[in-house]
Specification:
Death Domain, Fas; 2 domains; about 0% strand; inflammatory response; NLRP_Inflammasome
């Protein structure tokens, strides 16, 4: 069953973590454009499910996405904003300002200056299924720790595992982590990688 806008928003809010969720809610209260959300309603929000529900109830499914993207960009969460644009095909009048990773034009970064992993983040989350084997490879390469591995393995779906991997250890490891993940994907998911690289 296809995910609803509310489901996609919930996933994005899950990615934010407690600190960025607080920033998001604060910015939401400060919004001057109608329809506005009362601070009392925002303060009742306890988790990502409540926040996604509030956005859809207030702005409707079609209106909630541009508002969410606008606020994500305002608080500097450009990766999540880009992911939401990619998933929904919707944008906002605010241009994404996410910095691009400049790398030599070889390997996973060629021919664009944006790293392969960044460029295909959403597709990797939705299409990589053999996440456990990839985690084993990254653990062996010392890109992730035993603790990272256990935390990610605890997730119930491959999408959540992949999202946590990309938003956590790989993001922290920078280019080295992305290159290692690229190598592991080439070895474990060769057909998927061939398909993505041909696009």
């Amino acid at each position: 069953m296809a995910k609803s806008i509310k489901d996609h928003l919930q996933d994005i809010f899950d990615d934010l973590g407690a600190g960025d969720q607080r920033k998001f809610k604060s910015k939401l209260c400060d919004r001057k454009t109608e329809p506005r959300i009362r601070r009392a309603a925002v303060e009742k929000v306890e988790d990502s499910i409540d926040l996604a529900g509030l956005m859809v109830t207030t702005f409707t499914e079609s209106g909630a996405v541009p508002v969410t993207i606008e606020i994500l960009q305002a608080i500097g969460c450009n990766e999540q904003a880009e992911e939401l644009i990619t998933i929904t095909g919707k944008s906002t009048h605010v241009s994404p300002t996410a910095p691009k990773v400049s790398l030599p034009a070889t390997g996973p970064s060629a021919p664009s200056t944006e790293h392969f992993i960044d460029k295909n983040r959403t597709k990797l989350i939705s299409r990589v299924h053999n996440v456990d084997c990839i985690l084993d490879e990254l653990l062996q390469m010392k890109i992730i720790t035993e603790e990272d591995n256990e935390t990610i393995q605890a997730e119930k779906t491959s999408q959540k595992k992949m999202r946590n991997l990309l938003m956590g250890p790989i993001k922290s490891a920078g280019t080295k982590g992305k290159d290692a993940l690229y190598s592991a994907l080439k070895e474990i998911e060769p057909c998927l990688m061939e398909d993505l690289e041909s696009q």
